Amino acid sequence: MARLILFNKPYGVLPQFTDERSETARPTLSQFIDVPHVYPAGRLDLDSEGLLLLTDDGRLQARIADPKFKTPKTYLVQVEGDPQEDALAQLRKGVRLKDGMTLPAEVEYIEPPELWPRDPPVRFRKTVPDRWIRLTIREGRNRQVRRMTAAVGHPTLRLVRWSIGEWSIAGIQPGEWREAPSL
Q1: What is d(CA 38, CA 45) in angstroms, rounded to the nearest whole number?
Q2: The pLDDT of residue 22
Q3: What's the pLDDT band for 146 if we cut at 50, 70, 90?
Q4: What does pLDDT average to over the chain?
Q5: Of 14, 64, 91, 115, which has the fewest CB atoms closer than 10 Å, so is most exposed?
Q6: Which of 19, 34, 45, 66 is an active site residue?
Q7: Tell me, what CATH number does 91's domain have?
Q8: Does residue 34 have an active-site annotation?
Q9: Is the full-model pTM beyond 0.85?
Q10: Helices 144-151, 85-93: inter-axial angle, 10-degree rounding
């Protein structure tokens, strides 16, 4: 029976079990998860937080991570500035990035979510407003959400992956994990 772990990856944690750059002491998954033979299904950047799925099943890992399956990934995104409807419309149509057009995203304004404090905190600037959006994509290019929001003029300040498909981090604190029901 396949194992599936839902991990709330804190900011600054590498989404892998070892750090090849031995000259630095960056935290890795091994400091949080002591379960043999599970591996991340996809990635979540060092400077992003939230849901990282790990499994011991190669087929499940491929189904979650491979863009051909178009598994929805939903992010809570704090962006710089106050994006107007035209910026959201661009995200909904797809955005041209250096590696081509993105698929259309689902996006909406949200109230600031009740999240854990980030360490280090997002830099606050009195003269620059910020806004929270919920963004759902169905592909997984390198740093895609950050590149998309920057392309419409609103760089990402904080990025929290809330869900992948049917799985979410609701009720899971940063650095904690739980096993999903049997698949």
Answers
A1: 19
A2: 65
A3: very high
A4: 92
A5: 115
A6: 45
A7: 3.30.70.1560
A8: no
A9: yes
A10: 130
